[in-house]
């Protein structure tokens, strides 16, 4: 029996945030109520699609029956290692079938899965492991040096396990790593008996940490019920069939990646895992495995459409792609559709919402729209997914008009909203208002219910009393044929308080000047929105999840100022 969320975290579960049904007590009546847990999705997949190859990783393929047994063996191995209910099990891994197995095996063992972002710096990973109190750490061989450097800061980690016996960087494992690797543990373990009826659906299932762009990372708590319902809602929204083949291009530790770990299984579709994103390998896998869908962040999409060998591959199996993580331009969506020969939609979500909130499907009531209007809709933030309620509100919590002009903050409540932040009751309470999650994303919406994010709340630029959306300027600037990526930030100005400045990375072997970019923006933007200055950089600083760190970029210009104007 797993401990309930309230038993484990009594100080971070205020009554208004606790969700779920009152469980019937006693005997026959209780047995009629099935707990909501993602373990049921795997069980169905192995019962209905047992002989189907459901997971493809490198040169290996596993039927759903084989995958199910490996997950149960992982659960058995963790119990043999003494894992207690509610304890955290961390994975520091590239995308591979072993990490996908952890999404089920750790939960079946009664533990809480903690996937770590491999792009974080060692101090950030050390902080997360300390803050979460993780007991076991499974790691890829490549990360032995990283773990060795922070091991002394991690007294609560009892055991370190290698995920692979051999890897791309073979070397002698240090003596503090267990002699048995992941596969040896599974081979020696007996499968844990499968019985989801002992699961408390409100108990913690997964713990993900935010990128920490504005302070220390925070652990986002997702319950069994939350993960299960999010998978079903996403399944209904995306209409994933059992014939679907999902390529996991985004890391499973990333918000845009883990949301599919359960949905694909729920549909009985096929998982195809790639170690890390690479345009050449994406094309090879799409052609070989007849991939139908995958997701990307805009920088991935840009790299793929500009891959010089793209036309050599047969990508005809592709049906649709999703681009999320940051705003997408109409030009990027159009380029993906033209070069990859499939539909492409923007999507939006948060770590705190499991993650998907919206997708920019064109509703059937708008199918008669012009190609230009269809493209505009597909590049918007989109409308709510199944099981999601969204509002756009002003500072007093009142809905702003659905006029496509008035800016407000997106607030959400859904089956996928987190239980709260790990051991941070005050920050949890500050993130909710009247039961709605405050996203911090500023948007407009229209009469059709489509949202368009215009900026983060803290990144609106106010110059001379006018509000400027940095995202709006960035989207137009990214349409210039020479711009690879960019960031627009506020810099201090004696007259206007602050003005927009553009930091630009150009495409390889392309040149552009400040005058050329200014001329390109003129006529496409109001004059006051055009950056007052430009700076060309070889690259932009990014977080472990690939987000551009505007806070880092701004610091150079605001150091020494008496106050930050905005």
How would you describe this protein?
The chain is of the alpha/beta class and 566 residues long. Among the domains are: 33-276, ANL, N-terminal domain (Rossmann fold), CATH 3.40.50; 464-558, ANL, C-terminal domain (GMP Synthetase, Chain A, domain 3). The chain has 18 helices and 26 strands. It has a 9-stranded mixed β-sheet with strand order 2-1-10-9-11-12-13-14-15, with helices on both faces. Strands 16, 17, 19, 20 and 21 form a 5-stranded antiparallel β-sheet that branches. Strands 4-3-5-6 form a 4-stranded parallel β-sheet, covered by helices on one side. A hairpin with a 2-residue loop joins strand 19 and strand 20. It is globular. It starts with a helix and ends in an 8-residue tail after the last helix.
């Amino acid at each position: 029996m797993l401990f309930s969320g309230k038993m484990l975290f009594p100080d971070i579960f205020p009554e208004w945030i606790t969700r779920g049904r009152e469980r019937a007590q006693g005997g026959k009546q209780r047995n009629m109520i099935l707990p909501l847990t993602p373990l049921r999705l795997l069980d169905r997949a192995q019962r209905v699609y047992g002989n189907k190859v459901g997971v493809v990783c490198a040169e290996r393929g596993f039927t759903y029956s084989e995958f199910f047994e490996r997950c149960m063996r992982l659960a058995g191995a963790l119990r043999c290692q003494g894992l207690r209910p509610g304890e955290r099990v961390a994975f520091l891994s590239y995308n591979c079938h072993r990490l996908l197995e952890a999404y089920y095996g750790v939960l079946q063992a009664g533990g809480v899965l903690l996937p770590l972002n491999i792009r974080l710096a060692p101090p950030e990973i050390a902080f997360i492991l300390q803050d979460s109190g993780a007991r076991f750490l499974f790691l890829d061989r490549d990360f032995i040096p990283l773990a060795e450097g922070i091991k002394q800061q991690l007294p609560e980690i009892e055991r370190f396990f290698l995920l692979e016996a051999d890897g791309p960087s073979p070397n002698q494992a240090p003596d503090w790593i267990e002699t048995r690797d992941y596969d040896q543990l599974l081979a020696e373990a007996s499968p844990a008996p499968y019985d989801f009826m002992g699961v408390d659906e409100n108990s913690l299932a997964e713990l993900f940490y935010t990128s920490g762009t504005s302070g220390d990372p925070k652990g986002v708590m997702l319950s069994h019920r939350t993960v299960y319902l999010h998978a079903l809602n996403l399944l209904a929204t995306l209409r994933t069939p059992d014939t679907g083949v999902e390529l996991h291009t985004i890391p499973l530790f990333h918000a845009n990646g883990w949301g599919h770990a359960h949905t694909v299984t729920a549909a009985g579709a096929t998982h195809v895992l790639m170690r890390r994103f690479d345009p050449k390998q994406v094309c090879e896998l799409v052609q070989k495995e007849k991939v139908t869908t995958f997701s990307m962040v805009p920088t991935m999409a840009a790299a793929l459409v500009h891959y010089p060998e793209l036309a050599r591959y047969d990508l005809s199996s592709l049906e649709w792609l999703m681009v999320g993580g940051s705003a997408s331009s109409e030009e990027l969506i159009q380029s993906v559709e033209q070069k990859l020969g499939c539909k492409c939609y923007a999507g939006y979500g948060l770590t705190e919402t499991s993650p998907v909130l919206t997708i920019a499907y064109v509703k059937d009531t708008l199918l008669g729209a012009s190609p230009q209007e269809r493209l505009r809709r597909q590049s918007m933030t989109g409308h709510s997914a199944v099981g999601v309620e969204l509002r756009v509100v002003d500072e007093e919590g009142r809905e702003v008009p659905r006029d496509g002009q008035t800016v407000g903050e997106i607030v959400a409540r859904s089956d996928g909203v987190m239980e709260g932040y790990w051991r941070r009751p005050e920050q949890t309470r500050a993130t909710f208002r009247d039961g709605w999650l405050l996203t911090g994303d500023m948007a407009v919406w229209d009469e059709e219910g489509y949202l368009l994010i215009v900026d983060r709340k803290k990144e609106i630029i106010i110059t001379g009393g006018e509000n400027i959306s940095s995202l709006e300027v960035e989207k137009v600037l990214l349409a210039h044929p020479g711009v690879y990526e960019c960031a627009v930030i506020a810099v201090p100005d004696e007259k206007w308080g602050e003005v927009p400045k553009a930091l630009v990375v150009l495409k390889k072997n392309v040149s552009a000047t400040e005058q050329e970019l200014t001329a390109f923006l003129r006529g496409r933007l109001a004059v006051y929105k055009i950056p007052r200055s430009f700076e060309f950089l070889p690259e932009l600083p990014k977080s472990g999840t690939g987000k551009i760190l505007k806070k880092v970029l701004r610091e150079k210009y605001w150091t020494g100022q008496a106050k930050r104007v905005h």
